[in-house]
Amino acid sequence: MVKMATPFDAEATTERLTGARLRGPVIYLDSTGSTNDDLRQLALEGAAEGTVVMAGVQTAGRGRRGREWHGEAGRTLMFSVLLRPGMPAERWPALGPLTGAAVAVACAELSGADVGTKWPNDVVYAGCKLAGLLLEAQAPHFAVIGVGINVQGDEESLPAELRGWATTLELVCGKRIAPQELLVAVLNALDERYGLLLEEQSAGLLAEQRRLESTLGKQVVASVGRSVVEGVAHDVTGRGELIVLTAGGEVVVSSGEVQSVRDRNGDLPA
Ligand code: BTN
């Protein structure tokens, strides 16, 4: 990892973290392989909960399911945050939907747009992906949550293969939001929800996750390992599962990906 002087003021950003638990420090790297890898290394060396690594450029960014993940220098907010949840490992799967909700709420607040989540770990606007999360846990020690958000850029700035599937906050609301503003908003929103989870006050969190989840009530095709579950997305659970009503009954999907979402009359969501 290379640490250089940059216009991004990591110290000033750290000072704006007002939560009870996630207060930085924010470490900014002009260029690195993957912020998740950097933060994992810092965690192994004893870094405190709330430590954040943010990068201008990632040369080996990783997505879910072993995919490569590319962000745009100066346009994509790329960071990872360290949690050390003092709770039994079986409750850790709640961290994914909780972070998705924090990212969606922060994006909605700053853009004024109706931003939601898409199971399991995407943040979307009108069916197009705005952000993705990569949660890597080493229970009972720590969890590294990596977040990539498409902040700035017009349609042309999106790779051709992603047009129609991905979007940016700028496209969504017509405003250029500064990445550090969004970083502060996401971390403060995450802090609030993480506190509720640790204090076992999860009812409000689940209600929020249900409100934000864009697949509910829609016809979905979810890939689960090598098999496929097809039906109507019915509910989400506090453990990060998606409940799908299939022709054969209710199926609780705990990992996988929603490949296709349609309104129940067969139309693609607007
Ligand atoms: C996905 O949509 O598949 C997840 C994308 C996660 C990307 C972020 S960018 C910051 C952090 N570092 C990585 O290498 N990945 C995550």
Please give the largest β-sheet: 7 strands, mixed
| Hetero ligands | biotin
Structural class: alpha+beta
Q: Give the overall shape, derived from the CA principal axes.
A: globular
The helix-strand sequence is HEHEEHEEEEHHHEEEEE
- Can you list the strand order of the major beta sheet? 1-2-3-7-6-5-4
Helical residue percent band: 25-40%
Instruction: Kindly provide the radius of gyration, computed on alpha-carbon positions and rounded to a whole number of angstroms.
Output: 18 Å
How would you describe the oligomerization state of the chains in this entry? Answer: single chain
| Average residue-wise pLDDT | 92
In what range is the share of β-strand residues?
25-35%
**In whole angstroms, how far apart are the ends?**
42 Å
How many DSSP E strands?
12
Q: Are there runs of 5+ residues with pLDDT below 50, and where?
A: none
**What's the tally of helices?**
6
Protein model, in words:
This protein has 270 residues and is of the alpha+beta class. Helices cover 25% and strands 30% of the residues. The chain has 6 helices and 12 strands. The strands form 2 sheets. The protein has a 7-stranded mixed beta sheet, sandwiched between helices. Strands 11-10-9-8-12 form a 5-stranded antiparallel beta sheet. Helix 3 crosses helix 5 and helix 3 (95-111) packs across helix 6. The mean pLDDT is 92. It binds biotin (BTN). Biotin (BTN) binds next to helix 2, strand 3, strand 6 and strand 7.
